[in-house]
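Methods — Computational structure assignment.
A single polypeptide chain was analysed. Its primary sequence is given first, followed by the predicted tertiary structure written as C-alpha cells.
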Amino acid sequence: MTKEEIGAVLKKLRLNCGMTQQQVADALSRKQQVIGHWETGYAQPDADTLFTLCDLYGASIDEAFGFKKEKASAVDDESPLTEEEEKAAMKLYNAFLEAGIIQPGGGLTDRQVEFFDGLSLMINAVFGENEGAD
C-alpha cells in the first residue's frame, strides 16, 4: 500500500465520520496542514497516531486497511533470519522493552498485537513496493 493509498483511506474515514481536517487536527493537537499532508500522501502518521486516528474514526486498523492476519502469516520465504536480521530484531525487541511497549516474558495484549500488525502494515507500505529492486 502506498502513502497515497493510506492517505485516501484516512480521508475516506474522516469524511465518513463527518469531520473536517480542522476538527481532527484539534482532537490530535496538530495543525490542519499535517492532516492534509497525511491525506494526500505527502507525509504519513506514525503507527501510534494511525491507531489514534482509527479510534477517532470508529474503525479498527483491520477494517480501515483490509489487513488480515492470514496475510501476515503467509510467508513465501521460510528461510531462517540472517545474523544481521537477527541483530536488528533484537535491537527492536530491546527498544520496545525500554519503551515499555512490551514486558519481558509476558504475552501481548490485543492492543499490542494490533499495534504490531499496524506497524507491519506501515513498513510494508513504505518498503514493500521496493522489494526485488536490488
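Note: The chain has eight helices and no strands.
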